[in-house]
């Protein structure tokens, strides 16, 4: 049995290395072999970890059906081991996969399970991640979204509140950006400006040129929709100034200038 376990560990470690290097096809081959051995010798904990990594490898190459199958096996194994943290992680991943497959009811069920588990564990970052993914599921499920548009907004706000509390500021800004787009789609322009501005302030501190420019343009467009054309122009031309500062090509700068001129003519 020791020889079998040693052999399984060898293939598991090699599969991990392939995973880290982005060689998912070889990673999958090694992990499947490792998983078969771990399962045959009754090493449930290592078997569960291997199943989880296999699911993520398939997920990374957009093979969602296979990813779901391995995540489902992993969550069952972690439930046998009573490992709440890992059960929550699998539930979060399954919620994302079912959304990708258009199975919104199952997505919401797993994400709700994840929020319950991470609440009980006081794992606030994973709790924020779960609310963010739940918001996206609410938003993507067009039937529910048309009936209950506030659910997606409220879920995004819960994620933002949590990220703010734990100072996960990159994640907070990313979700503010997502929420801003959702609010614009609901023509809640004033509210969208607040979250876009918060996100912009963060990305300026990080000197994230692409986000700074994109958000400056977005804020300009929102002001335009509010018929505040002076402020709209200010933000649009701030975007151009940032493009110059970050040494964007003259062609791209001129394209934005032409778009601005067309808007205000």
Spell out the blueprint of helices and strands.
Blueprint: H1 2-20, H2 24-40, H3 44-60, H4 64-81, H5 84-100, H6 104-121, H7 124-140, H8 142-147, H9 149-165, H10 169-185, H11 189-206, H12 209-225, H13 229-245, H14 250-264
Helix pairs in contact: 1-2, 2-3, 3-4, 4-5, 5-6, 5-7, 6-7, 7-9, 9-10, 10-11, 11-12, 12-13, 13-14
Describe this structure in words.
- The chain is an all-alpha fold and 265 residues long.
- It folds into 3 domains: 1-82, Tetratricopeptide repeat domain (Serine Threonine Protein Phosphatase 5, Tetratricopeptide repeat, Alpha Horseshoe); 88-164, Alpha Horseshoe (Serine Threonine Protein Phosphatase 5, Tetratricopeptide repeat), CATH 1.25.40; 168-265, Alpha Horseshoe (Serine Threonine Protein Phosphatase 5, Tetratricopeptide repeat).
- It has helices at residues 2-20, 24-40, 44-60, 64-81, 84-100, 104-121, 124-140, 142-147, 149-165, 169-185, 189-206, 209-225, 229-245, 250-264.
- It is elongated, with a radius of gyration of 23 Å.
